[in-house]
Amino acid sequence: MDIKMLLTIFVVNFSYITLNTIRFMLTMKGYRLIAPLVSMAEITIYVLGLSMVLNRLDNPLNLVVYALGYAVGISVGIKIEDYLALGYIMVTAILPSSTEQLNLPEILRDHGYGVTQSFGEGREGERMILEILSPRKNERSLYKLINEKEPRAFIISYEPKFISGGFWTKKVRKRNT
């Protein structure tokens, strides 16, 4: 058993899949310059790792270590993307109308979030609806702030694909170029 070869196979596939996961997320978020550059490194590493395993198929442990590098690479790639927190989120917070006196929209705006306020009708009466735009890196602190002010809030979030107009447009354009 060649430990050095097994370690090399693991590291090569781990690196490939980590880059693959990051490149996929960059592509989905529209990073048109960096995603192709990452893909060049990714495919080079992929060909190297695959050839190492295919040239040594006589040892099934090579394939197992290759698969292990794949699994660990995905996990680490996801953690890196979470750390980078690329992009923006749109959060809808639906609040009981009795929370109007909290002035949550102004509090959120004071913290730098883009907020649009409207009112709707829910099962138990009128509701305040807040549409909040935030960088993903601030996602957890946004949820915490909403829950501190109104623990009964119903919160939904998603990632917008396209942002145009509003006072946030200039900020978004600067960050994406």
Automatic annotation (TrEMBL):
Keyword annotations for this protein, in alphabetical order, are:
Cell membrane, Membrane, Transmembrane, Transmembrane helix
Q: Where in the cell is it found?
A: Cell membrane
Please verify whether the record's keywords include Transmembrane.
yes
Where exactly are the transmembrane stretches of this chain? Answer: 6-26, 33-54, 60-80
**What Pfam families does the record tag this protein with?**
DUF2179, DUF5698
Statement: the UniProt record of this protein carries the keyword Membrane: yes
Instruction: Provide the Gene Ontology terms for cellular component.
Output: plasma membrane
Residue span, DUF5698 domain: 21-78
DUF2179 domain sequence ranges: 113-165
Q: How does it sit in the membrane?
A: Multi-pass membrane protein
User: By its UniProt entry, which InterPro entries does this protein fall under?
Assistant: DUF2179, DUF5698, UPF0316
Origin superkingdom: Bacteria
NCBIfam families referenced in this protein's UniProt entry, alphabetically: PRK04164.1-5
Record HAMAP family: UPF0316 (MF_01515)
Family that this chain belongs to:
Belongs to the UPF0316 family.
Q: What is this protein called?
A: UPF0316 protein BCR24_09130
| Species this protein is from | Enterococcus ureilyticus
